[in-house]
Amino acid sequence: MKAQTYTDKEMIAAIKSGSAKRQEAIRYLYQDASLKGKIIQFVSRNSGNYQDGEDMFHEGIIVLDRNIRQNKFKEETSIQGYLYSICRFLWMNQIRKQGKVTLTEDNLEMDSSDQDTPEDILFTAEQKEILNSLVSQLGDRCKKILELWKLSYSMEEIANELGFSSAAMARKNKYRCHKSLLEIIQKHPKLVNTLKEQ
Q1: Quick one: pLDDT band at residue 2, thresholds 50, 70, 90?
Q2: Residue 189 pLDDT greater than 70, yes or no
């Protein structure tokens, strides 16, 4: 069966609608091999590697999904250009925080609007860095579970995304991960206070 294709307006409507339509739209974004390749290429040329590029692609889709659902996405920008901009910004921010080498601009042709990073992405990235310093202690599996849960994915959707046998199993793992995160947060009150000040 031929895969579903989307215009930008159809993509936005599907993500905002939730449930199966949203899940299918997100899956369609993940399957955009051309855009994913450009993001991986940018990251690889700027002190990263293939896995870093894949991670940025994943993180960028999470931010895009959230911004569309919160009506922060300005529709004069293409979804591809916007997602590329998010991924590039997140990686540049991570590199700066790590004190690595100065970035070189890539020559990939995207929308000119991808130069304009929305202020809300900066805010999200700063918060995300602090949260990741806590969540990363849980491991990749828990991190993905909590990210999907934060995006209001249902337990059924989380089970499908991460390969759990049932929604009940996804719920059990989410509970365990959330409990572990709370324990970690209690041990790092300074980081939590910094997050609240953002």
Answers
A1: very low
A2: no
Do both 98 and 184 map to the same domain? Answer: no
**Long-range pairs of 86-90 with CB within 8 A, sequence gap ≥ 24:** 86/60, 86/117, 86/121, 87/39, 87/42, 87/43, 87/56, 87/57, 87/59, 87/60, 88/39, 88/42, 88/114, 89/117, 89/121, 89/122, 89/125, 90/56, 90/59, 90/60, 90/63, 90/121, 90/125, 90/128
pLDDT of residue 57: 92
8 Å CB contact between 43 and 56: yes
Residue 147, C-beta contacts closer than 8 angstroms, at least 6 positions apart: 62
Supply the pTM of this predicted model: 0.53
CATH of the domain at 127: 1.10.10
Cα three-residue angle 4-55-128, rounded to 5 degrees: 110
Q: Are 42 and 108 in contact (CB under 8 A)?
A: yes
